[in-house]
Amino acid sequence: MPREIVDRVEMPKQSPEERRSNFREVALGLDPELAVREAKRCIQCKTKPCTKGCPVEVEIPDFIALMAQGKFREADAKIKEKNSLPAICGRVCPQESQCESLCTLGKKFTPVAVGALERFAADWTREHSPESGCEKAGSDGPAVCAAADGIERPSARVAVIGSGPAGLTCAAELALMGYRVDIYESLHETGGVLRYGIPEFRLPKAIVNQEVDYVRSLGVRIFTNVLVGMTLDLNEMLAKGEYQAAFIGTGAGLPYFLEIPGENLNGVYSANEFLTRVNLMKAYKFPEYDTPVKIGRRVAVVGAGNVAMDAARTSLRLGAEDVKIVYRRSRTEMPARLEEIENAEEEGVQMFLLTNPVRIISDGKGGVGAMECIKMELGEPDASGRRRPVPIPGSEFTMDVDTIIIAVGQGPNPLLARATEGLALNRRGNIEARDEYGATSIPGVWAGGDIVTGAATVISAMGAGKRAARGIDIWLRSQS
Amino acid sequence: MFRIMEKRLLAPAVHQLVVEAPLVARSARPGNFVIVRTNETGERIPLTIADYDPEKGSVMLVVQEVGKSTMDIGMMEAGDSFADVAGPLGQATPIKKVGTVVGVAGGIGVAPLLPQIKLHKEIGNHVITIVGARTRDLLILKDETEQASHEVIFATDDGSFGYHGFVTAALEELIKQGRQIDEVTAIGPVRMMQATCNLTRKHNIPTLVSLNAVMVDGTGMCGCCRVTVGGETKFSCVDGPDFDGHKVDFDELASRQAFFRDEENLARELAEQKRGGCRCHEK
Ligand SMILES: Cc1cc2nc3c(=O)[nH]c(=O)nc-3n(C[C@H](O)[C@H](O)[C@H](O)COP(=O)(O)OP(=O)(O)OC[C@H]3O[C@@H](n4cnc5c(N)ncnc54)[C@H](O)[C@@H]3O)c2cc1C
Ligand SMILES: Cc1cc2nc3c(=O)[nH]c(=O)nc-3n(C[C@H](O)[C@H](O)[C@H](O)COP(=O)(O)OP(=O)(O)OC[C@H]3O[C@@H](n4cnc5c(N)ncnc54)[C@H](O)[C@@H]3O)c2cc1C
Ligand code: FES
Description:
The structure holds 2 protein chains of 2 kinds. Chain A is an alpha/beta fold. Chain A has helices at residues 3-6, 16-19, 32-41, 49-53, 60-68, 72-80, 86-92, 99-102, 105-108, 114-128, 165-177, 193-196, 205-217, 234-239, 271-280, 306-317, 338-347, 415-419, 450-453, 458-479; strands spanning 157-161, 180-184, 221-223, 245-248, 254-255, 268-270, 298-302, 322-326, 350-352, 355-362, 368-381, 387-391, 397-399, 403-406, 410-411, 445-447. Chain A folds into 3 domains: 3-128, CATH 1.10.1060.10; 157-253 and 411-479, FAD/NAD(P)-binding domain, CATH 3.50.50; 257-408, 3-Layer(bba) Sandwich (FAD/NAD(P)-binding domain), CATH 3.50.50. In chain B, the strands form 4 sheets. Chain B has a 7-stranded mixed sheet, with helices on both faces. A 4-stranded antiparallel sheet of chain B has the order 1-2-6-5. In chain B, strands 4-3-7 form a 3-stranded antiparallel sheet. The longest helix of chain B is centred in the C-terminal third of the chain and has 15 residues, at 261-275. The interface between A and B is large, with 40 and 42 residues. Bound molecules: flavin-adenine dinucleotide (2 copies) and FE2/S2 (inorganic) cluster. The site of one flavin-adenine dinucleotide (FAD) has 26 residues of chain B, from strand 4, strand 6, helix 2, helix 3 and helix 9.
């Protein structure tokens, strides 16, 4: 086997020493030469297992074949047939457990760097020709696109609640079919987790802005500062005939805590609070920006998902000297993207695995003095199929920390459901989706993304937004 | 959007603003608050809706300058706009017909108290309001308070107007006089609400307090506003801001409010330097 096929190209990155003190993007992207070289590694196997690993079924070998010929714009268009946000997905999808995990080449060597190629195609195309929306949009208020597929459709208005990846995708798909779409977002900014959760050094906000601008260019109106359920009532919006259908993509915004003593001491943040202060409110630029964030010298981040890695790496960038990940299971169970775990370790984040916090000890002044932990070992598999961590009696020890960030998951925010009569939830408080399109218990209302599945991924939220758009289209056409 | 339609100085460094926010005005209930941001670099701060007018499409806010963000609001004029006003947020105050209700307000706490006592009066409760301030000049919204209550006691710490002493002392006198009191609602500084609760607990009078925990989003997304009530952690923005005062851990609240003290002081000093002195003593 020639070396060019065996060795996957390495994505250039800022060095760990440099990047741990700035908020610029860590991974610098491929150049055209590297991109073509990597694309040529794909052996274009007949079985295309990679496409089955993609939640939205991007024709991966086809776009890679175009890239191998240097046809980057065409490659980008090929991806966009299935995935409207490739610049984002190329950066944040867990490729190693999706497409790349099934790559034929990966069985013997390393898989093709699908994510890096996807990102390159999108970035290159954006830099060389800005995306155009539909021509009519933006001229006089809420214009509509001519349906991209040429199908005649009834004139109808759809409300999309939440501007995360699920809402943005659903809105774009519906606008492209020729419907009028309004997005309502409770925060003052769009993007959902892409804006307030995932940090600049992993997903530059300029890219999120471009994707939102694209959705706007399709004629979609976006209203921020509107908390549906409080500012407006969903049932009323439909009953009054302002909207003929709605999509709920309100995400999993409710942070879970550990429910251990000392958790309300100063210096204990939820990852959501910590990341929102830094990303959405730009506290890393305090006092130029008004929102403060306080970081100590020794930080413990509890949890080992993407959220935890983001919190740990953000802590370093804010000046913490010593940052630990504390996780009750072992390395193989860590849910974060592999690349982010590697990046975090390179930057100096230490991993305290099979370790569980028991209580947080006060410094006597209302702040965090230390955290008591207990060592764990893996026992029998639990409901999730992972081996259950069990405490080792007598193994308690104290960890010297002054800041603790809790990143043990998020649940559905109950506000909208509480205020919307007739909206059925499942036992865990997620909205119940009754068919493959995400229809809810209220006629004319669909839901998708984290609010249905619980905290998941950007690509699965987008997939849900897209399927709901299809469901809404079928329904609106059947109503006319 | 979010234009300041009217602005008026109620007391030194205390401003009344009428802000255009039609969707908020339409859905607001007593006890709700908004989160505002003055401009693109501003922080999100919570302010209680002191009054709302669905017809005019406006909400009334009363803001006391205590730091950078509220000083920025103090500098804004009628015609200026907030970058953002989101709401109404929080649970509406549970207001039921109980008999006699005493509203206790410290400082500008009378502004958020007003919509609550108005509704109490409307549904047939007998309303006694006790409003306290350090000194006469700081007593605000006197006429509005008189109108919304059956009886009013003004109290000043220095005795320059009305009752000489703290609101809690005035409340204690009412209790000692043997007045039937079915419910107390207290809004103001943490220590004032705590003292009120310590008093009413002794006399078994149910007491509602409005907690001013530090907030970021105000929608239940960050957990910054968590408070301990009856041994359980609650998010004051979505579970409150009103809680059973006898169950609130006020010491924890006071401690959490002070977490960003250093940063707040720095921001205020920088802002004061920029505008050449604070305006706290201007009239
Ligand atoms: C820190 C962090 C890092 C992550 N990293 C990755 C990663 O690397 N890769 C990956 O694939 N996934 C990652 N995820 C998960 C991923 O971001 C989510 O699965 C995805 O964003 C879910 O999309 P969504 O559209 O369903 O919801 P969200 O992105 O949560 O968006 C929901 C939006 O709805 C708004 N909203 C909520 N309630 C209302 C209401 N009542 N009215 C109006 N608006 C409302 C919210 O403000 C929000 O803007 C990460 C998550 C976090 C928190
Ligand atoms: C539900 C609620 C309703 C409120 N209603 C009113 C009102 O009607 N009128 C009014 O003048 N004030 C009100 N406040 C208080 C007001 O939000 C704070 O005074 C303001 O945020 C201070 O900001 P600053 O930058 O001026 O001062 P800073 O110097 O930043 O802070 C001064 C003090 O204000 C508190 N504070 C700071 N930031 C926040 C924040 N983001 N959220 C909450 N508190 C904070 C802290 O205790 C701090 O010590 C309310 C607070 C809450 C929680
Ligand atoms: S302010 Fe964020 S949860 Fe209450």
